[in-house]
Each structure stands twice: as C-alpha cells, then as structure tokens.
Amino acid sequence: MDDWQDRVDAVWADDALDPRDVIARIDDLAGERPTDDPVALFERAGARDSAGDEDEAEVLYRHALSVGLDDERRTQATIQLASTIRNLGKTDEALEMLRIEYEREPRGPLHDAAAAFYALALVSSGQAERAASIALQALAPHLPRYTRSVTGYAREIADHLD
After folding, report:
1. Which domains does the chain have, with CATH numbers?
2. CA–CA gap between residue 8 and residue 1 (Å, rounded)
3. Burial group, residue 27, by CB count within 10 angstroms (0-12, 13-18, 19+)
4. Which of 8, 37, 117, 150 sits a CA distance of 20 to 30 A from 25?
5. What angle do CA 49, 54, 59 make, to 5 degrees?
C-alpha cells in the first residue's frame, strides 16, 4: 500500500494539475484497489471535494466511513465530510459530527483542525461567540505568550453562553 499511497500523495502534491485532472488521476489509482476499499473511497471523495463536486464527495465520504478507515483517516474524513455538508446546508448534522470529533481526542493530532471546522459550523449556525471561544481555545497553546490569558478569556466566553 505504501507505493500506492506515495503515488496518490504525488497527485495531491502536483500543483500543475487542475481539479478535473486530480479527479481523473485519483480515480485511476483508486481503480487499482477493491471497489469498497475505504482509503480509495476517501481519496476519491477528497478529489471531488477539492474540485467543488460536494454532492459526489458526500456520498464517497459516507461510504468510506461506513466501510471503515484507520483512526487518522477516519478523523480526516469526518472533518472533510462535515465541512462538505455544512457547505451543502446541512449545518445541524455538520455541527454534531464536528462537536463529537472535537470532544473525542483533545490531544489528538487533528484536534485543532476539528476545532477550526467546528468553529466555522458554529458561525454558520449563528453561534459566533461560541465559535470564537472554540477557536481561541485551539489557538491558545500555540501562542508564545499569553496562553493562560487567552485560554481564560475563551473559557469566560463559553461560560457566559452557558
């Protein structure tokens, strides 16, 4: 699988390709795998998502998740699916998916990404203050100074909302 994934990664890294070329190349590579291969489905979904074919991406993300992905790709697929369905107007479902992902692993490698997309979904649902709190809590640990202050202010915003 490593060689296959390397070839997929090379397609994603090729900035000269337009989105339709990315879809075609990813589909060719996915064709080397079994029809229900979750990683191939995930890559096909991502290609369509980045090309703006969100309806097709949604179906493929859901299929990849239902077949089963490793933890890292499951998290990525969940974040990407939630972002896609938020763009399709399914804000409540996106919020729930992102809330669960955000709360799942506070120290996970994609926690900040989950926080960012959760904040975007909160804004889309009219909850800008809660979104600011989530975003600030994710940002605070990366600040060279003021981590404690920003964390405290972010919690204060959240407490004010509850």
Report:
1. 2-118 (1.25.40.10)
2. 10
3. middle
4. 117
5. 95
Closest CA to 98 of 68, 73, 120: 120
CB-count burial class (<10 Å; 0-12, 13-18, 19+) for 139: middle
Q: Could you tell me how many residues make up the chain?
A: 162
Angle 46-51-53 (CA atoms, 0-180°, nearest 5)?
A: 85
The tokens describing 100, both together, are 């669960």
Q: Which residues of the chain have pLDDT under 70?
A: 1, 162
Q: Give the model's pLDDT for residue 138.
A: 94
Tokens 């640990």 locate to 141
Report the Cα 142 to chain-centroid distance in Å. 20
pLDDT value for 1: 53
Amino acid symbol at 153: Y
Q: Residue 22's closest CA among 63, 52, 59?
A: 52
